[in-house]
Structure formats: C-alpha cells, structure tokens
C-alpha cells in the first residue's frame, strides 16, 4: 500500500484541495501540519523550501497544483475522457491566472489600499471568472463540472470559492453567488458528499 504524507501549515490555503481529494477518494494519508521551529527545521529538506509537499512512499513532490492533479489522476477524479480532463486542466489554469494576477495584488497591497482593490476586483475582473465557470457548468447541464459525478473540477471550484469568501470577508465584503445557480449547485454537490461532509465537520477550524 502506498504511503502518502501531505505536509503543510495549519490552514486550508494551498493544501486543502489535496486534502479534499484524499477525503473524496477515501484514501488514507498523513495530514502533517507544521509551524514555528518545526517548519524551520524541515524547510531545508523541502524541494523548493516551501509547502505544501506531498511524500509518496518517501519521495517528496512540491507545487500544490501538480500535487492535486497527480492525486486526482491516481484516484480517478479527472473525468472519463481526455476532453473532460482537459476541461479540468483549463479550470486550473484560469484559477491560477486569477490568483497570481488579481488576488496577489490585493494580498501585497498596503492595509489601507486592500478594500479599494478588492472592491475593484469584485465589481470588475471577478465577474469575468465567475461568468466563465457558470457558462462551463451550464454547458455540462448536470450540476457537475464534467460528467455526472464529482471530480477534481468540482473540488477545485468549491475550494477556490471558499478562499474567495475568506479573502473578501477580511475586507468586509461578501462573495455574491445569488445569480450563479450552477456554481451554487457545485457547492451543494460537494458539501452533500458523505466523505466531504464528514471532513468539513471534523477538520481543524482555521481562519484561512
């Protein structure tokens, strides 16, 4: 049996998508959460000196997106055709663009500038991203990102929406999905899965 260890900080952040994959697939893993001196000691042994890192039978792999895609392939969560897999890869790249572009600006901005930048993002470019995913979901017509069951695509959307809600809450704003019926269906489908529901109830409660 393969031994998996996911090392990350005690937050959802860039490690939570992989945790969700493990839980949905019902695959055991060590959820190793580090902080302070423990992280300082571990850091030199990490491939890029950063987290998350996945160990597969002792082999260390970094980069959150690569880890999530690997796990999804291993556990059969990338759709049933190459085209479905491509659509999930597309979703990953779109979200990467959003985070590395727009949200990084908000994170790095001075405290007093964050609300203004967040408001501009919510009322501007965020709409483009939400429109894109609403359209993709409407095209599939099942309430799932691809096919008719939960895949990495659904977990990815659920995870990112959760991060967005947390980020916007930090600047006293809300993520409005009231007119996004398909995105709401994804949230419902993910949260109603028994394995995910159990994980959401028992996982450590963290701010981010």
Briefly, what is this?
This protein is an alpha+beta fold. It contains nine helices and four strands.
Description:
With 208 residues, the protein is α+β, with helices and mostly antiparallel strands. It is built from nine helices and four strands; from the N terminus they run βαβαββααααααα. Helix 4 packs antiparallel against helix 6. The two termini are 32 Å apart.
Task: Write the SSE topology.
Layout: E1 4-9, H1 16-25, E2 30-34, H2 36-42, E3 53-56, E4 59-62, H3 64-74, H4 82-108, H5 114-123, H6 125-140, H7 152-169, H8 181-192, H9 194-202
Helix pairs in contact: 1-3, 1-7, 4-5, 4-6, 4-7, 7-8
The end-to-end distance, rounded to whole angstroms, is 32 Å
Strand order of the largest sheet: 2-1-3-4
Largest sheet descriptor: 4 strands, mixed
Radius of gyration: 17 Å
> Percent range for helical residues?
55-70%
How many distinct beta strands? 4
Structural class: alpha+beta
- Annotation field: number of helices: 9
Number of domains: 2
CATH class of the largest domain: Mainly Alpha
- How much strand? 5-15%
CATH topology of the largest domain: Glutathione S-transferase Yfyf (Class Pi), Chain A, domain 2
Instruction: Name the helix and strand elements from N-terminus to C-terminus, one letter apiece.
Output: EHEHEEHHHHHHH
Name the average pLDDT.
95
| Shape call | globular
Q: In the CATH classification, which architecture of the largest domain applies?
A: Up-down Bundle
Low-confidence spans: none
